[in-house]
UniProtKB/TrEMBL annotation:
UniProt xrefs under InterPro entries: RNaseH-like_sf, RNaseH_sf
One term of GO molecular function: nucleic acid binding
Organism: Denitratisoma oestradiolicum
Record-given protein name: Phage related protein
Amino acid sequence: MTTTILALDLGTQLGWAVSARDGLISGGSESFKPQRFEGGGMRYLRFKRWLTDIKQCADGLDWVVFEEVRKHAGVDAAHAYGGFMAHLTAWCEHHQIPYQGVPVGTIKKHATGKGNAGKAEMIAAAKARGHDPVDDNHADALALLDWAMAQGGVACA
């Protein structure tokens, strides 16, 4: 039986990829942009509901990996990322699912050989591995999933 891993490129436009127990990989890009007339915390409630749906569709998760960003282009992006990361880690703790942040440079170097690869290079790397990413967020999640699978599909200490 294979390990079920969920890889996330956290953000308002969230990239995701999951390796199912049957070995198939699925994923995409999901928007958590605040809706009109919605309170500031609703995006995070929608995110938690989405995580639960993914967990149920995958028949459970063995490991969650996420892109660990240390530098953001703007304050709003930093705040959104922090909110998603806080809710993700709390959700994982609640469901007793191991989780791990992976530095952006590690993911890019694994996918392209360059730790500072751009969006187009990440998309090209995903396509070279046989995927058809819907956007750069999805491509990043696919690269992260590939990295996690290369670790043997088990959480690293």
